[in-house]
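Incident log, entry 3
Record: BamA/TamA family outer membrane protein (391 residues)
Problem: checksum mismatch between cached and fresh output.
Input:
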Amino acid sequence: MLIPSVLLLASLSAAPVVSPPPPAPGLTPAKKDSGVDAIALPLVSFSSDTGFGYGGVGGMYLYAPGKVPYAHAIGAQVFFSSAGVQSHYIRYDGPQLIGQLRLEGRLEYRREMRSPYFGAGNQSAPDFRGDESDPRYNFNKGAPGFWVRLRGRPFGPTHPLQSYVGYGWRHTSVDTYEASMLLKEKPVGFEGGSTGQLLAGVLWDTRDDESDPTEGGVEELALRVSGVGTGSRYHYAGITLSERRYLRLTSRLTLAHRVTLDMLFGDVPFYEWSNTGGVNVSEGIGGMSSVRGIERNRFSGNIKAFSNTELRFQAAQLQVFGQSMKLGAVMFMDFGRVWHPGVSDGKWYEWHPGIGGGVRLARRAAVVRMDYARSTETGRQRFYLTFGHMF
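Fresh output:
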């Protein structure tokens, strides 16, 4: 949802922005024995789901002998959107803080006016006709929280196997509209409350480039568990399976594919139905991180599956303010569906597709993406201007 100003990125000669999950926002510094680097950038974005966004992001990197690529990184963001979304955070990253183990953490606050709620299941809200301001399909949400994660490579820094453990906590407040479906249905989580999660996962990463891959892939298995012992009001567990694969067809053409399956079990609050686990979280079904062309979180439930296929073409090399940048184009097809207990989810083949195309502008690892997408079910269209590849 967020991008630094394209012109500022082009004019800065420091090293590139890191793709998610970034150690801290800003530009990744060159390797040094000692010293400090710092940078601050404006944020500009647009999404059909959240409107125009603006704010600022900054990062500071501290170097020490033997610490690669740095000893410590601290980042912060302030962000507001025209649709009433706020997303603020402070983040820390220590790549080799405890031996070869990487410690990451984030303290954050998120506020959403008119956060979407369409009910549960693959055929939810059949009367919805595209008016996202309709109070029947909205509620207000506030969610301060934090997470910490310890990540490492047990078989050495160049081995593809990575593992991590962590803990996340969030307190969600829920404010309903009088006419809302949420007030009528009162699902689990209607009262809001805290959700503490123990996190664990493993990845097998063979990508040639983490930020803009053209070969290899990454497979991930992630677990999350919530209960009284984790500081959670609700008792549930989740499993996420994800596969990302990249195939270089020519020197300019790459086929990229991702498939994700997320399963939740137990006393799951409704505001967790749309979330996936893993290092790079997504939400949906619907929106810029799952199925483009469909309204954000249009379909949600305890089990979610979605697939994304992109044909990425590097069109040209450009010089902008004396800096080399790559111009690319993308064609894509997304589709997904959900399953939820106690509701009708339709036939097994009833998936929700979205198709479209876009433009990519890249400066080293910094990738700005501009996408146009269309739902082939409803014919409705969405636009996204954001930062970093979808996957």
